[in-house]
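Task card 7
Instruction: Convert sequence to structure tokens.
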Amino acid sequence: MGAAASRLTDFLRSLGQSHIDLVGTSHGGAVAMLAASQDRASSTPLIRSLVLVAPANPFMTNARLRIALFRTSFGRMLLRNLAARSRLLRRKSVGRMYAHAARITEETRSGYDVNLADRRSYEYALEVVRTWREDMQKLQAALASIADIPTLLLWGERDQAVSCKSGLLLQKVFSNAQYVVLPDVGHLPYEEAPEEFNRIVLRFLES
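Output:
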């Protein structure tokens, strides 16, 4: 995760901007927080605010069993072979990201199929799992350095991937954080409720 955050900060500095509002979701939300911490160590920090959409975080206890499973040889085999080869399982995994699978369009499914049919996606996921505990410890240690960044924490009420309750604990880290939960929405609010998501994010950024 630290390497991903470093690549992100390098990219942000290559844009030639003086202020950046950074939006990160799920695992990318954790990367965004770590990148913001790295950015704060610079003499000219760029990141002005954070929008974190169901970000992976050190307080998400609901993920412990999944992480433990995929750290085992059986779990790695399951992900590499069964999930990667089964179109039905891939469709079910996408469906779990939504509160209502009926809201998934065929265009959305086709988009996810591109990545989920690529075996390299599973190797990347296993690398994320392999260093998960250490990465979460590093992230927790880094949170104090970004506590004063204005932050929007946005969750779907029925998120099965990252519990929205963990957002309340994450909110306490920040001195200026808004916490918003969208009812009857899952892990991907920007896909499941895009108009409401955009309204909330734009209102925060304009403020």
